[in-house]
Amino acid sequence: QVQLVESGGALVRAGGSLRLSCAASGSIFSINAMGWYRQPPGKQRELVATITSGGTTNYADSVKGRFTISRENAKNTVYLQMNSLKPEETAVYYCNVNGIKYNENGPRGFDVWGQGTQVTVSS
């Protein structure tokens, strides 16, 4: 099994910064893409940013220039640095990781989600 542990969510004032972390552990053979998504209250989950194993990044238009996604492959960890936060970015932030895991019957693909971490931006 592969597990994700997220951290870093907090209450912050508008204009402030936060850094989210998500560490993957378990029977991991390799990790492909890692990403962050968010779900504001009463809304659907949406993409924030993703990063591939090669370091290619993709951002939602709304966060470009303010958020930075990065990864530390040796630690199977992905980060999201969020600057100039806005009240409308209050949401539960979820980490997503996909890759290949060890399995008794051979390598298998996996795609897992974290439990979510609350980010609240006050005005």
Verbal overview:
This protein is an all-beta fold and 123 residues long. It is built from no helices and eleven strands. The strands form two sheets. Strands 2, 4, 5, 6, 9, 10 and 11 form a seven-stranded mixed sheet that branches. A four-stranded antiparallel sheet has the order 1-3-8-7, with no helix packed on it. The chain is elongated and about 50 Å long. It starts with a strand and ends with a strand.
Q: What summary fits the major beta sheet?
A: 7 strands, mixed
Q: How large is the radius of gyration?
A: 15 Å
Quaternary state of the chains: single chain
Shape: elongated
Q: Based on helices, strands and strand pairing, what is the structural class?
A: mainly beta
Tally of alpha and pi helices? 0
Estimate the helix proportion, in percent. under 10%
Q: What value does the average pLDDT take?
A: 97
What is the ordering of alpha helices and beta strands? EEEEEEEEEEE
- Strand % is over 45%
* DSSP strand count: 11
What separation lies between the terminal Cα atoms? 40 Å
Low-pLDDT stretches are: none
Keywords, separated by commas or semicolons:
mainly beta, seven-stranded mixed β-sheet, 123 residues, elongated
Give the structure's gist in a few sentences.
The chain is mainly beta.
Topology:
Blueprint (H helix, E strand, L loop, with lengths): L1 E6 L3 E3 L4 E9 L1 E12 L6 E6 L5 E3 L7 E6 L4 E6 L8 E11 L6 E6 L3 E6 L1
Parallel strand pairs: 2-11
Antiparallel strand pairs: 1-3, 3-8, 4-5, 4-9, 5-6, 7-8, 9-10, 9-11
